[in-house]
Amino acid sequence: MRSSGMASTDVVDSFVDPETLNQYSLREFTLHAHGRIDMENTSQKFMTIFTDNAAPDTWSTHDLASVYTHLAARGYQYGPAFRRVQSLRGTTSTVVAELDSDLSSISDLSSYQLFHPTLLDSSFHPLLALLPGFDSTFIPISIQKFVSTGKVNTNVLKLEMRGKYLDNVCGLAQARTYTTDLVILPTDASLDQTMFMFEGLTIRQIQGTQSGESAQVKSVFDKLNAAADVPNADHTEQLDAIMKDYCMRRRWVDTLIVTNLADLFPSGEKIFNAGFDVLSNQELVKSIEPFNQLAACYAQIALKDLDLSLVDQNYHSLLSSCQSLASTQSEQASFHSTQLRLMTLFDRFPQLKPILTALNTYGSHLKQVLNGQQNALELFLGDDQTEQNLQQIQTIISMGRIEMIFQAIKQYLQQHDQNNNGSLSNRRLRIFWLVGGDCCSFLPILELLLNLSSQTGLRVDIHYADTDSRQITRAEQTFETHLDGQNSICITYDQTFDLFNNEDRDKIPIESFDIMLTANKLQGYQWWSPSGRGRAFNDIDQWTTALKEASGFESIKTFLSSYESTLIMAQKTKSSELLQRLDERKTQAWLLFAKDNQKSLAHSIASLLPCSNFEYIDMYDSDMEKIRSVVQKMMAQYGQLYIVFAWPLEQTALEENSDLAFKQHEESMCGTLAQVLQLIQAISPQFCPFVFVITRDAQLNIESGCNII
Q: Which InterPro entries match (predicted)?
């Protein structure tokens, strides 16, 4: 018995009385292993796995100090009497060890009829050294069969131990239970001289310990005591680690499937029925009268001492407007009084600064325009700052209309959510925002979306684009204060996107947004013609015709306002027949890793695809060269590739629980999918396919941050 652990002097023969031993055991020991030793005539034929023609060794070592240091870190603190291993060699699942069997230093061996405990214990050390991990501790729990051959030779100075694991000990994960067979025989002897055989020796990791858990070295007894105290201690941290590292592999949970929102949008008629011919910006409403008074001051200054004979006929309507405005002022305005009025309005309406700046710029040069000294178009588009100011004015005027559109959509979605018992909680609204100007104009819409999300659980993704890096930085700082503490709205900031750059447009995945807002881009080649000094953009009828010719729109609505510029709303069609004619559908393709027959899942999927460009790859009729050829061809021919990997549904179920099933899954399926993705990455790193993996046993890693749309 070992009365004091594994110290060098702990082997004693104190318990010779069975009753005393039994009482001591009841108080001090917990049963961790059980078995039966049969001393009768047992068959000497052992398992065929031990042969003289074993696999060649792949490793060996004589540095036993390092081996026992490694075992000590795992909890096996062997004293000098138990350190009998002299050399190790083997493969990934087998081990052969040479043991020092010299017992001359032990004075009394009469109590040990078969095998001395130090030799028996040392026979297990090589098996422990082969296990993966650094500080996990394993103990024996059962032996299927123990054979003593009757050829025990205690006079030899060296013994040989041969062990073979029946499990894969070098796989992707560390198992918690292993089974092994081992034999003990004299060194350089053949198997027919075997002294002892252990068949089906099972070892198990002590509960509550795992590799990497603690840097502190604990003995095997400390770990056993810790495992025995599990019910009475707080092991929340250890349990969380176990749940994360192990349980997710076997406990499947339902993951919320989030879909887009485009199919729930109200029709254009319902949105327009909300009434848009109303100026919703109250600050703008309040500014109308004082701004008109400021314009009248500029008109008076321009008309003073103006030679009417010099006014070009093209400006007669402008002259009439100036005369009408000037008549509303009873007192003659001066430059000084006008500037004082301007400064007062700047303080009163800070958000309308672009309008006041434009009034001052154009009002100060009004006389020069009327008498022909300055060209009006050059004044409007004289420099980048002027164009930017015009864009900000357009944003101020139009944002009220856009806010009303979002308000109408919000009311419709809220009503839909109430009628369908919270159906928006698994939906996502995706918005592309390319509207130049001050980010503050977007705040009312952001607050509206936050309110909608908090009431319905709707998720919102916003792609906020502006070529001005200063505006992007300011927008990020401004929106951060409104988004603090919530995770339902996600904003991506993009300062590199250029609407007129084909490469930038190609970076946006096809059909990746539900609402796209593009307006107020007053770039010279888009809105104004550099030559001819005339406006180059189309009128409302021409724009409507262009949208109809583009096809793919279910409805195109236009609205003229008394206060603002024209609004055109085009709603994409839901008809598959029409959508398949669009370029974005013609340039996409689907690669289905599934059987090509009428009863397969692939045919059910194919009937629902948004385009007719798809191809099957059968698991049992395809090799990697064929797959590589198909992928290369589709990448060269199409702009967007969707991959549906359904091979796991076709995996052959095996009768026995062996490594063959894992090998088939790892090599034939996971390996193929990995090679396909690596191939795409190698051919074109910028090419981003959508990959859908269909399997019976899978779940989303919640911490991965994947976008499951």
A: PKS_dehydratase_sf, PKS_DH_C, PKS_mFAS_DH
